[in-house]
Amino acid sequence: MDFNFTEEQTMVRDGLTRLVRESYDFDTRRSVIESDSGWRPELWAQIAEMGLLGMPFSEEDGGFGGGAIDSLVVMEVFGRGLVVEPYVPTVVCAGGFFKHAGSAEQKEEHIGGIVDGSRVYAFAYAEPRGRYDLADLETTAKKDGDGYVLNGHKAVVIAAPWASHLIVTARTSGERRDHDGISVFVVDKNADGVVTRDYPTVDGRRASDIYFENVSVGADALIGEDGKALPLIELVVDEAIAAQCAEACGAMKSAQEMTVEYSRQRKQFGTPIGKFQVLQHRMVDMFVEYEQSVSMAYLATLKLGESDKERKSAVSAAKVRIGQAAHHIGQEAIQIHGGMGMTDELAIGHYFKRLTIFDAEFGNVDHHMKRHIALASD
Amino acid sequence: MNLDFSPEETAFRNEVRTFIEDNYPKNVSAEGLRDDLSPEDMVAWHKVLGEKGWSVPAWPPEYGGTGWTPTQRYIWSEENARVNAIMPLPFGVSMVGPVIYTFGNEAQKQQHLPGIRSGDVWWCQGYSEPGAGSDLASLKTTAVRDGDHYVINGQKTWTTLAQHADWGFFLCRTDPDAAKPQEGISFILVDMKSPGIEVRPIKLIDGGYEVNETWLTDVRVPVENLVGEENKGWTYAKFLLAHERSGIAGVARSKRAVEQLREIADKELLDGKPLMQDFDFARKVSQLDIDLAALEITELRTLAGEEAGRGPGPESSILKIKGTEIQQRLTELTLEAVGHYGTPYYRDLSDTGSNEYPIGPDYAQHAAASYFNMRKTSIYGGSNEIQRNIISKMILGL
């Protein structure tokens, strides 16, 4: 057993923590998410320069030879500071597809662009009528000569307004919800027929609904094998969930610490409210929930390389446990902050909102509970 | 024992249902968020009710009340909830109004009660302060006598919808040397147009502005605006809080919200089938239904006690705790029901070009904001922790 980070991971964690503390304080974040762009490309470049965007890729793919633990380290710090920059869509999701299934040319072009920070990707997988089922696809990609023509509507594509490229799941054959016949494409966001409707999200990020209206792509847009992509999508989504579990842990840690700190300062009836035992026990429960969540984030990350069944089971277990903890800690943090917790001015409400939305991304508690049950009875 | 309404009560239900169907303003609905509405929309129904004589049903008939029994008032609120009616704001009708007709002098009754009944005067409440939330007695705003005026200085917070208010009722410290913090506080009516009042909106986590910080700097108020006796304001404040707490269970609204949740879950799909057919989801909706039934009967028991002359006691804390918990779970489950479309921040998007694609279904638009907003219900009106303290002290004797 070894739950220690390597010396290099510790250095990365310390350096990134410093960067977030110094240049991503709450007021700065607020002005950035309210600005036109909604994010900080210059910070993204700085993170690329620190080598963080290349960590999870092998050296032969142009990366620095790390893996999922490195993404966990990064995302935990991102969660601490509610960093909105698109590490999961770009590095974990897009990077994951190219790493696992990209051709040599695709790896060179796309992983290179991810590592040096010159390209940003968004992952267009969800659909309005599909809920959290990755195979419930109405978007189609019809064979057209050597290439394909895409049609469909993707819902709430996180980071799409910032992206240069989209990773798109689409049906190349079969019926809606069939497990066969699903493929993955990389599409230039400026391609003809890609229509985007951009908007902010309640947790301070940006997203788009994207309509593909007869979008033609070449054969080189296909990642992996035609019609056989579902296991690949499931793998990449599990990697994304593991990374976001780490992010949620960071956000829960901040929320829990802020609540304890507030309860020491805030006086009612002449006493700091943190002296009331009924609140002490509730803050202890928040802390316990957080520690359990960290354990589950580690479990999910460490099992990513195991068999499909073992991986899925661990990831779903983590998503269930952390989804529940995220709701619990977010709600308790607001309650213990009282009226101040309801204000936009305090950071705590923004942590609460991020933790709320965490549950709905890549499948909520119910969805992953069902997957966990199904795997156990397989 | 009998759970049925009497024939008279049933006839009353039919009468109010018909009245609401015929008279409720068609273009105004409380489906969304309150501060998305114009002030005129918020009082539109109040004005109709004022003309009918139904705007202050709980007041004594000599002040314009209807003389309805508690059960009739309950039926009334249920019928309004059925159409998502925007009810008269509580600040005039159920807070300051009863204080004025109970403790105010004749001149104050003449001056203020008609405007409350008609909906022409908008009131706000100046109780909470930055240092005095649940511990209201520690408030610091001062009112110092200067000839025939009080000079008020201090800062209030959470003044709900004060941005539209004509008048406010404020708790101010008139005797800083009183032996106990509850003593030496006075209940004063303040014209919100007075010089020295500044109302600053507070942005909340749902993105809206329904509460304010209110700063009072050398605000001069005529002494005749003092309600009751100087330094006895705490008595009136407690009286008012007891009124505020009744009706806080929100059963009728929550029943309507469960119906709406079911409608949403019939439209959302899981595995190609309506979400409402999913056992896990249906179970959570049923749990809410069941808890709501328990709350409703508990409220009816409290009402029956009131009709028998036993005023709402500390049992109303049960209604507050369970009522707000149910409201919160309802909005949480509604957010869960809408899936991905709970994520967009809709508030800034309502005025974009009409030829753009809409984002998600209509029913998803308020889901996240309502969930965030409803976290306030377990904090305001005496937090649920304070309600539990009340039960432990007043009922359990701990």
Automatic annotation (TrEMBL), chain A:
Organism classification: Bacteria, Pseudomonadati, Pseudomonadota, Alphaproteobacteria, Sphingomonadales
Q: Where is the Acyl-CoA dehydrogenase/oxidase N-terminal domain?
A: 6-117
Q: Under the GO molecular function aspect, what terms does this record hold?
A: acyl-CoA dehydrogenase activity; flavin adenine dinucleotide binding
SUPFAM superfamilies hit by this protein = Acyl-CoA dehydrogenase C-terminal domain-like (SSF47203), Acyl-CoA dehydrogenase NM domain-like (SSF56645)
* Keyword terms, alphabetized: FAD, Flavoprotein, Oxidoreductase
Q: Does the keyword Transmembrane apply?
A: no
Q: Where is the signal peptide?
A: none
Q: Mind telling me which Pfam families this protein's record contains?
A: Acyl-CoA_dh_1 (PF00441), Acyl-CoA_dh_M (PF02770), Acyl-CoA_dh_N (PF02771)
Please name the source species. Answer: Pontixanthobacter aestiaquae
**Name of the protein in question:** Pimeloyl-CoA dehydrogenase small subunit
Query: Which stretches make up the Acyl-CoA dehydrogenase/oxidase C-terminal domain?
Result: 243-364
From what superkingdom does this record's organism come? Bacteria
Annotated ranges, domain Acyl-CoA oxidase/dehydrogenase middle: 122-215
Q: Which family does it belong to?
A: Belongs to the acyl-CoA dehydrogenase family.
UniProtKB/TrEMBL annotation, chain B:
Taxonomy, top ranks, is: Bacteria, Pseudomonadati, Pseudomonadota, Alphaproteobacteria, Sphingomonadales
**What SUPFAM superfamilies does the database record attribute to this sequence?**
Acyl-CoA dehydrogenase C-terminal domain-like, Acyl-CoA dehydrogenase NM domain-like
Which terms are listed as keywords in the entry? FAD, Flavoprotein, Oxidoreductase
The Acyl-CoA dehydrogenase/oxidase N-terminal domain covers which part of the protein? 6-120
Protein name, as recorded: Pimeloyl-CoA dehydrogenase large subunit
Indicate the segments forming the Acyl-CoA oxidase/dehydrogenase middle domain, all copies.
124-203
| One GO molecular-function entry | flavin adenine dinucleotide binding
Q: Which cofactor does it need?
A: FAD
- Please give the Pfam families that the UniProt record associates with this protein: Acyl-CoA_dh_1, Acyl-CoA_dh_M, Acyl-CoA_dh_N
Q: Which domain of life is it from?
A: Bacteria
Q: Which family does it belong to?
A: Belongs to the acyl-CoA dehydrogenase family.
The organism named in the record is: Pontixanthobacter aestiaquae
